[in-house]
Each structure stands twice: as C-alpha cells, then as structure tokens.
Amino acid sequence: MTTVSVTNKKIAIDRYTNITHLEKGSFVTCFTALNENMQKVVLTVSDNQREIQSRMSMSAKLAKVRGVQRYERYEQLDISDCVLEELNELYPAVFSKTSGVLVGEFYETSFNSHVKALNVGEKISLFQQLLAIVSEIHANGVFHMDLKPSNIMIHHGAPVIIDFGQSVSELEVESVLNTSAYAPRHDVYACSVISEKFDVYCLGNILHDMLVQVPLTTSLVQDSRQYKQLQENVGNLAANLIYGMTTREQQQRYPISLASNTHCSLIISFRNLSAKTV
C-alpha cells in the first residue's frame, strides 16, 4: 500500500514529490511528480478498477510497440479518513478510499502545441508516424477507440499515444459510445461492431485538424464545398486521403494499410508547400 499525506495543501505520495495537477478526465486524474531519481513521471489516479485494469492490460499487451504509453507499476493508495477529507477539499471527486495510482512515463509536449510550430511537410511526416504506431497497435489486436489530439503527446520529437482506457481487443464485440469531436458519430449511434475503421476515421479527422486547424463535424463528402475548399488549401492527394479515411460508410472507408501506403505520394505532393505554415 502506498501512503498518501497532505502538508500545507501539498500532496505527498510516498517516494513521489513536487506533485502537480495535470488534467482530469472522465475516469482518471493525472498529476506530474518527481520520483526518487528526480525524473518526471505521471501519476494516474482512479478508483475505477475497470479503467485501471484496462490501461494495465493494454500496456502489457502493447509492451513491444514503440510510441504507446508505458506504465511502470500500479499501487493501491492507503488514504486515512482525515487525509481523504483534505484531499477532497483540494481535488473534489478525485480521491476515494478505493483509489489507486498508475505510475507512467512523462511526455513533455502536447500534440497541438507541437503541431503549431510545424510546416505542412513536417505535419505530414508526423502524421505518418501516427499511422505507423496505430497500424502496429492494430497488428497486436487492439483498437484504441479514443484517438484525438489530447490523447497524443510528444516525447523527444516523436508522437506517443496515451489513454487506452476505452480501448478494446479485436476479440471483443460491443457497441461504442464515444462523444469525442474526432469520433465518427454515425458509427457511434449505429452501434457498429468494433473495427479498425473507427480508429481510421479518428486519424483522418486529426489530419484534417492538423492541416486546417479544425476537426470535421461530419464525414467529408466528395465534390462538396468543404471538400473543394480542402483541395485548394492542401491539394488533391491530401483531400482524397482525408475523404477516404472519414467517409461515412465503414465498408468504403480506407483500411489503415491503404492510408499508410499513401505516404510517399503525399510527401511528394507537399514538397511545393513545405515552406508554408498552415
């Protein structure tokens, strides 16, 4: 059991110091901290055992995949009643008597802030790295199911996909409820069987956001005004790729292998635009 204490409105969790609130999600709250070696780590706190178990199992399943979130260990928290009262004053509805903490690597830069500094060619190169990571995740029988910029971090210039709390195995068959702005709404409300095409749509929407600074609110329709505007801004090949990845019909939507195979052509198509910052 890992002891939690509060002194002068600052949390201490055993060997972890300088604990600072990072963000709160649906089921978890994240803090940054320094470990005993003075290295930055992320402490992911939750009392949702299903969420914790999902993250732990997917981390183990994808242990050999580069570019995914790593967890070092899980520790059950030992919180006394008086400390819990102090914690709830500092962070309402975050800690409970059944809370535990996942200890993971720290990633220094958010995806959106990193993308803002890139030119078009660099954005396409970064997106190709994302495609390669997701392709390998799928090859290991896992679908992320919540791909969006806030679930991508940058570590030493390379993307790292985090938050596998909603991920599923290819052996699982269930409906999806994901209200993210990057998710295919029609897949959600049709309760479609899980497939790689859900993640592909999210990736296509992320690419659209990278290039024009806004996610799609609905599937891209060929020959529409929106599609033609996208062609003018980023070229035919990129517009066609986004269309193929975000089309409404799952059967017609690109598999991730086809999206990945456009890499060389896409890079070439952006050479003339590589000096332009979108």
UniProtKB/TrEMBL annotation:
<dbReference type="InterPro" id="IPR008271">
    <property type="entry name" value="Ser/Thr_kinase_AS"/>
</dbReference>
<dbReference type="InterPro" id="IPR011009">
    <property type="entry name" value="Kinase-like_dom_sf"/>
</dbReference>
<dbReference type="Pfam" id="PF00069">
    <property type="entry name" value="Pkinase"/>
</dbReference>
<keyword id="KW-0808">Transferase</keyword>
<protein>
    <submittedName>
        <fullName>Kinase</fullName>
    </submittedName>
</protein>
<dbReference type="InterPro" id="IPR000719">
    <property type="entry name" value="Prot_kinase_dom"/>
</dbReference>
<dbReference type="GO" id="GO:0016301">
    <property type="term" value="F:kinase activity"/>
</dbReference>
<keyword id="KW-0418">Kinase</keyword>
<feature type="domain" description="Protein kinase">
    <location>
        <begin position="16"/>
        <end position="266"/>
    </location>
</feature>
